[in-house]
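Journal club prep — side note

Before the paper discussion, L.F. wants everyone to see what a predicted structure for a comparable chain looks like in token form. Sequence:
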Amino acid sequence: MLRRCNHFKHWIENNGLIDLGFSGPKYRWTRGRNWDTMKCARLDRALYSMEWRTRFQEGAVRHLIQSHLDHTPLLISTTGFIEYTESKKPFRFQVAWLTDEGFEKFIGDNWHSQQSLTSNLNKLALELSKWNSDVFGNLFRKKRQLWGRIEGIQTHVAEGGPRHLMKLESRLHQELDLTLNQIKTLWH
């Protein structure tokens, strides 16, 4: 095994390849869901040549979060990764809102039969946007936040963080699954 590793290391050096590095959780493979049985490794790497780096100066690698598999996905971007910024978006009805228990009452409270259809729809769009933000929550933002928290926990645990984080990670995965199902409903 060690001999094969050395051959691979020499092959990398002889071809002038360099590890691109990464952002995100340190390990790409983990097994075991408690502290005593957990094993981790960074098995996969993205290698580049100087020619590639000259062409794609902003190129970057991101280790995505581990979900239901023991390997995490590896995302390579030739243009780098930019931080998400919120922008004003047009109103869109989200079918996932129908899953909320208080949705029908909210509609009833904000629909006024004495007003015109256009006036009602405009006011309702504003109120639904506020309700989505304050009560239901923006699913995509919620997904990003859960993703970020799970990523942080996986990074912290890989560095020997406290054991209780594994239980929190499990709970956050459940929340992420619910949110992903709501997003799936939204897209259908």
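L.F.'s comment for the group: The helical segments are 2-14, 50-55, 103-110, 117-136, 139-158, 164-187. Keep this in mind when we get to the figures.
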